Protein backbone atom coordinates (compact mmCIF):
# COMPACT_ATOMS: atom_id res chain seq x y z
CA UNK A 1 0.00 0.00 0.00
CA UNK A 2 1.51 3.31 -1.11
CA UNK A 3 0.74 6.79 0.11
CA UNK A 4 -0.27 7.75 -3.43
CA UNK A 5 -2.88 4.99 -3.39
CA UNK A 6 -4.30 6.40 -0.15
CA UNK A 7 -4.27 9.94 -1.54
CA UNK A 8 -6.18 8.83 -4.64
CA UNK A 9 -8.60 6.76 -2.56
CA UNK A 10 -9.27 9.68 -0.17
CA UNK A 11 -9.94 12.12 -3.01
CA UNK A 12 -12.31 9.74 -4.81
CA UNK A 13 -14.13 9.26 -1.49
CA UNK A 14 -14.38 13.02 -0.99
CA UNK A 15 -15.54 13.81 -4.52
CA UNK A 16 -17.60 10.61 -4.93
CA UNK A 17 -16.36 10.61 -8.51
CA UNK A 18 -13.36 9.15 -10.32
CA UNK A 19 -13.71 11.81 -13.01
CA UNK A 20 -13.51 14.77 -10.61
CA UNK A 21 -10.70 13.14 -8.63
CA UNK A 22 -8.71 12.58 -11.83
CA UNK A 23 -9.17 16.23 -12.81
CA UNK A 24 -7.97 17.46 -9.42
CA UNK A 25 -4.99 15.10 -9.46
CA UNK A 26 -4.26 15.96 -13.11
CA UNK A 27 -4.25 12.28 -14.02
CA UNK A 28 -6.10 10.35 -16.69
CA UNK A 29 -9.31 8.76 -15.43
CA UNK A 30 -8.22 5.23 -16.29
CA UNK A 31 -5.14 5.61 -14.07
CA UNK A 32 -7.26 6.62 -11.06
CA UNK A 33 -9.66 3.75 -11.67
CA UNK A 34 -6.78 1.28 -11.92
CA UNK A 35 -5.15 2.50 -8.68
CA UNK A 36 -8.46 2.15 -6.80
CA UNK A 37 -9.02 -1.36 -8.14
CA UNK A 38 -5.45 -2.38 -7.28
CA UNK A 39 -5.94 -1.11 -3.73
CA UNK A 40 -9.14 -3.13 -3.41
CA UNK A 41 -7.37 -6.24 -4.71
CA UNK A 42 -4.45 -5.74 -2.32
CA UNK A 43 -6.76 -5.41 0.68
CA UNK A 44 -9.19 -8.06 -0.52
CA UNK A 45 -12.27 -5.89 0.07
CA UNK A 46 -14.60 -3.64 -1.89
CA UNK A 47 -14.04 -0.03 -0.96
CA UNK A 48 -16.69 1.66 -3.10
CA UNK A 49 -20.23 0.98 -4.21
CA UNK A 50 -20.51 2.07 -7.82
CA UNK A 51 -23.84 3.60 -8.82
CA UNK A 52 -23.36 4.86 -12.36
CA UNK A 53 -20.69 7.54 -12.11
CA UNK A 54 -21.24 8.03 -8.38
CA UNK A 55 -18.84 6.34 -5.96
CA UNK A 56 -19.94 5.83 -2.36
CA UNK A 57 -17.86 4.23 0.37
CA UNK A 58 -18.70 0.77 1.63
CA UNK A 59 -18.37 -0.07 5.33
CA UNK A 60 -14.81 -1.25 4.67
CA UNK A 61 -14.14 1.92 2.72
CA UNK A 62 -15.30 4.06 5.63
CA UNK A 63 -13.00 2.13 7.94
CA UNK A 64 -10.01 2.59 5.63
CA UNK A 65 -10.71 6.30 5.19
CA UNK A 66 -9.98 7.00 8.85
CA UNK A 67 -6.62 5.26 8.59
CA UNK A 68 -5.86 6.99 5.29
CA UNK A 69 -6.41 10.44 6.79
CA UNK A 70 -4.14 9.69 9.73
CA UNK A 71 -1.39 8.18 7.55
CA UNK A 72 -1.44 11.03 5.04
CA UNK A 73 -1.41 13.61 7.84
CA UNK A 74 1.56 11.92 9.51
CA UNK A 75 3.40 11.73 6.18
CA UNK A 76 2.83 15.43 5.57
CA UNK A 77 3.99 16.23 9.10
CA UNK A 78 7.19 14.23 8.55
CA UNK A 79 7.78 15.86 5.17
CA UNK A 80 7.48 19.33 6.65
CA UNK A 81 9.78 18.45 9.57
CA UNK A 82 12.51 17.18 7.23
CA UNK A 83 12.34 19.85 4.54
CA UNK A 84 13.17 23.06 6.32
CA UNK A 85 12.89 25.20 9.43
CA UNK A 86 10.72 27.49 7.31
CA UNK A 87 6.98 26.65 7.16
CA UNK A 88 6.13 24.79 3.95
CA UNK A 89 3.59 22.27 2.74
CA UNK A 90 -0.13 22.23 3.44
CA UNK A 91 -2.11 23.57 6.39
CA UNK A 92 -5.76 22.50 6.57
CA UNK A 93 -7.83 25.00 8.54
CA UNK A 94 -11.48 24.67 9.51
CA UNK A 95 -13.70 27.50 10.68
CA UNK A 96 -17.29 28.39 11.38
CA UNK A 97 -18.94 30.44 8.65
CA UNK A 98 -18.91 33.53 10.87
CA UNK A 99 -15.19 33.24 11.65
CA UNK A 100 -14.31 32.61 8.01
CA UNK A 101 -16.26 35.69 6.94
CA UNK A 102 -15.34 38.22 9.61
CA UNK A 103 -12.17 37.10 11.38
CA UNK A 104 -9.96 34.99 9.13
CA UNK A 105 -9.34 37.25 6.09
CA UNK A 106 -6.94 39.55 7.92
CA UNK A 107 -5.23 36.75 9.83
CA UNK A 108 -4.69 34.51 6.81
CA UNK A 109 -3.66 37.45 4.63
CA UNK A 110 -0.94 38.33 7.12
CA UNK A 111 0.09 34.68 7.38
CA UNK A 112 0.44 34.25 3.61
CA UNK A 113 2.49 37.41 3.30
CA UNK A 114 4.95 35.94 5.81
CA UNK A 115 4.87 32.33 4.61
CA UNK A 116 3.87 32.25 0.92
CA UNK A 117 5.11 28.67 0.47
CA UNK A 118 2.43 27.27 2.77
CA UNK A 119 -0.65 26.02 0.94
CA UNK A 120 -3.72 26.94 2.98
CA UNK A 121 -6.87 24.85 2.63
CA UNK A 122 -9.94 26.40 4.25
CA UNK A 123 -13.20 24.58 4.97
CA UNK A 124 -16.25 25.63 6.95
CA UNK A 125 -18.75 23.80 9.11
CA UNK A 126 -20.49 23.69 12.48
CA UNK A 127 -18.50 23.51 15.69
CA UNK A 128 -19.34 19.83 16.17
CA UNK A 129 -18.41 18.87 12.61
CA UNK A 130 -15.12 20.80 12.80
CA UNK A 131 -14.14 19.18 16.10
CA UNK A 132 -14.85 15.75 14.63
CA UNK A 133 -12.76 16.58 11.55
CA UNK A 134 -9.77 17.65 13.67
CA UNK A 135 -10.00 14.48 15.78
CA UNK A 136 -10.18 12.36 12.60
CA UNK A 137 -7.11 14.13 11.09
CA UNK A 138 -9.17 15.60 8.26
CA UNK A 139 -8.18 19.06 9.51
CA UNK A 140 -4.99 20.27 11.19
CA UNK A 141 -6.78 22.92 13.25
CA UNK A 142 -10.15 24.60 13.49
CA UNK A 143 -11.72 27.76 14.88
CA UNK A 144 -14.81 26.85 16.92
CA UNK A 145 -17.11 28.50 19.43
CA UNK A 146 -17.91 26.92 22.75
CA UNK A 147 -19.05 28.01 26.17
CA UNK A 148 -16.46 28.06 28.94
CA UNK A 149 -18.28 25.24 30.74
CA UNK A 150 -18.27 22.88 27.76
CA UNK A 151 -14.75 23.85 26.77
CA UNK A 152 -13.51 22.86 30.22
CA UNK A 153 -14.96 19.38 29.70
CA UNK A 154 -13.81 18.83 26.12
CA UNK A 155 -10.53 20.68 25.64
CA UNK A 156 -7.11 20.39 27.30
CA UNK A 157 -8.04 17.41 29.50
CA UNK A 158 -6.27 14.12 30.18
CA UNK A 159 -8.75 12.26 27.98
CA UNK A 160 -7.07 10.58 24.98
CA UNK A 161 -9.70 12.14 22.69
CA UNK A 162 -9.19 15.65 24.08
CA UNK A 163 -8.02 18.47 21.85
CA UNK A 164 -5.55 21.23 22.63
CA UNK A 165 -7.38 24.56 22.59
CA UNK A 166 -6.17 28.15 22.55
CA UNK A 167 -8.65 31.00 23.27
CA UNK A 168 -8.57 33.41 20.36
CA UNK A 169 -11.28 36.03 20.93
CA UNK A 170 -14.68 36.51 22.51
CA UNK A 171 -17.56 36.97 20.11
CA UNK A 172 -20.51 39.18 21.03
CA UNK A 173 -23.75 37.45 20.06
CA UNK A 174 -26.95 39.27 19.19
CA UNK A 175 -30.49 38.03 18.76
CA UNK A 176 -31.55 39.42 15.40
CA UNK A 177 -35.31 40.01 15.18
CA UNK A 178 -37.71 41.43 12.57
CA UNK A 179 -38.03 45.20 12.85
CA UNK A 180 -41.79 45.04 13.25
CA UNK A 181 -41.50 42.67 16.23
CA UNK A 182 -40.09 45.22 18.64
CA UNK A 183 -37.24 44.55 21.04
CA UNK A 184 -39.24 43.02 23.89
CA UNK A 185 -38.25 39.38 24.39
CA UNK A 186 -41.83 38.20 24.79
CA UNK A 187 -42.82 39.60 21.39
CA UNK A 188 -40.18 37.57 19.51
CA UNK A 189 -40.28 34.25 21.36
CA UNK A 190 -42.97 32.84 19.07
CA UNK A 191 -40.85 33.27 15.92
CA UNK A 192 -39.03 30.27 14.38
CA UNK A 193 -35.25 30.25 14.75
CA UNK A 194 -33.28 30.56 11.49
CA UNK A 195 -30.03 28.69 12.08
CA UNK A 196 -27.31 26.45 10.72
CA UNK A 197 -27.68 22.63 10.98
CA UNK A 198 -27.33 20.76 14.27
CA UNK A 199 -23.87 20.96 15.77
CA UNK A 200 -23.77 24.77 15.57
CA UNK A 201 -23.06 26.29 18.99
CA UNK A 202 -24.88 29.53 18.12
CA UNK A 203 -27.96 27.51 17.16
CA UNK A 204 -27.85 25.72 20.51
CA UNK A 205 -27.69 29.02 22.38
CA UNK A 206 -30.56 30.40 20.32
CA UNK A 207 -32.69 27.35 21.07
CA UNK A 208 -31.93 27.65 24.78
CA UNK A 209 -32.89 31.34 24.81
CA UNK A 210 -36.19 30.73 23.00
CA UNK A 211 -37.02 27.80 25.26
CA UNK A 212 -36.47 30.01 28.29
CA UNK A 213 -39.03 32.50 26.94
CA UNK A 214 -41.81 29.94 26.50
CA UNK A 215 -44.22 29.82 29.40
CA UNK A 216 -45.10 26.15 28.91
CA UNK A 217 -42.19 24.01 30.07
CA UNK A 218 -40.84 21.48 27.61
CA UNK A 219 -41.94 23.27 24.44
CA UNK A 220 -39.31 23.59 21.77
CA UNK A 221 -38.95 26.36 19.18
CA UNK A 222 -39.35 25.67 15.49
CA UNK A 223 -36.03 25.57 13.63
CA UNK A 224 -35.57 26.55 9.98
CA UNK A 225 -32.16 25.47 8.71
CA UNK A 226 -30.04 27.58 6.37
CA UNK A 227 -26.45 27.30 5.15
CA UNK A 228 -25.31 30.92 5.00
CA UNK A 229 -25.63 34.08 7.07
CA UNK A 230 -26.97 35.98 4.06
CA UNK A 231 -29.89 33.55 3.85
CA UNK A 232 -30.48 33.73 7.60
CA UNK A 233 -30.39 37.54 7.50
CA UNK A 234 -32.88 37.53 4.61
CA UNK A 235 -35.28 35.37 6.63
CA UNK A 236 -35.15 37.77 9.59
CA UNK A 237 -35.45 40.79 7.33
CA UNK A 238 -38.54 39.26 5.71
CA UNK A 239 -40.12 38.96 9.15
CA UNK A 240 -40.32 35.16 9.18
CA UNK A 241 -37.73 34.23 11.83
CA UNK A 242 -35.26 35.32 14.47
CA UNK A 243 -31.57 34.37 14.52
CA UNK A 244 -28.41 34.42 16.61
CA UNK A 245 -25.85 36.64 14.86
CA UNK A 246 -22.26 37.43 15.79
CA UNK A 247 -21.81 41.18 16.01
CA UNK A 248 -18.70 40.93 13.82
CA UNK A 249 -20.72 39.34 10.99
CA UNK A 250 -23.56 41.83 11.29
CA UNK A 251 -21.00 44.62 10.87
CA UNK A 252 -20.16 43.28 7.39
CA UNK A 253 -23.79 43.54 6.20
CA UNK A 254 -25.86 46.54 5.17
CA UNK A 255 -28.35 46.45 8.04
CA UNK A 256 -31.69 48.05 7.27
CA UNK A 257 -34.51 49.16 9.54
CA UNK A 258 -36.23 45.84 8.78
CA UNK A 259 -34.23 44.18 11.60
CA UNK A 260 -33.40 44.92 15.22
CA UNK A 261 -30.87 43.32 17.54
CA UNK A 262 -31.01 42.31 21.19
CA UNK A 263 -27.76 41.64 23.10
CA UNK A 264 -27.67 37.94 23.94
CA UNK A 265 -24.31 36.82 25.35
CA UNK A 266 -20.58 36.61 24.69
CA UNK A 267 -18.81 33.38 23.82
CA UNK A 268 -15.21 32.31 23.38
CA UNK A 269 -13.81 31.25 20.01
CA UNK A 270 -11.02 28.68 20.29
CA UNK A 271 -8.40 27.35 17.91
CA UNK A 272 -8.32 23.58 18.46
CA UNK A 273 -5.79 21.02 17.23
CA UNK A 274 -4.57 17.52 18.08
CA UNK A 275 -2.00 17.62 20.91
CA UNK A 276 0.31 15.19 19.10
CA UNK A 277 0.29 17.12 15.82
CA UNK A 278 3.61 18.88 15.22
CA UNK A 279 3.87 21.44 12.44
CA UNK A 280 5.94 24.57 11.97
CA UNK A 281 3.15 25.90 9.76
CA UNK A 282 0.65 25.59 12.60
CA UNK A 283 3.14 27.01 15.11
CA UNK A 284 3.52 30.17 13.03
CA UNK A 285 -0.25 30.56 12.75
CA UNK A 286 -0.52 30.29 16.53
CA UNK A 287 2.08 33.03 16.95
CA UNK A 288 -0.04 35.43 14.90
CA UNK A 289 -3.22 34.89 16.90
CA UNK A 290 -2.66 37.42 19.71
CA UNK A 291 -2.42 40.24 17.14
CA UNK A 292 -5.87 39.58 15.66
TrEMBL record:
Location of the HTH lysR-type domain: 1-58
GO molecular function annotation: DNA binding
Name of the protein this chain belongs to: DNA-binding transcriptional LysR family regulator
Transmembrane segments: none
Keyword line: DNA-binding, Transcription, Transcription regulation
Family: Belongs to the LysR transcriptional regulatory family.
Keyword Cell inner membrane: no
Keyword Transcription applies: yes
Pfam families, alphabetized: HTH_1, LysR_substrate
Amino acid sequence: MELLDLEIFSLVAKEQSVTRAAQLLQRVQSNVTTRVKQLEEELGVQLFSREGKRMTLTENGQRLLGYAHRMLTLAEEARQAMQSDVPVGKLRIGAMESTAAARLPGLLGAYQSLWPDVQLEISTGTTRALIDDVKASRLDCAFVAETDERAALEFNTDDDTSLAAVPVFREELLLLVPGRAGAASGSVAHFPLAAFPKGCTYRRLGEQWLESQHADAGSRPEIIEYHSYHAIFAAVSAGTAVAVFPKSVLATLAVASTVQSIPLTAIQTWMVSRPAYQSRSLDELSRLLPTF
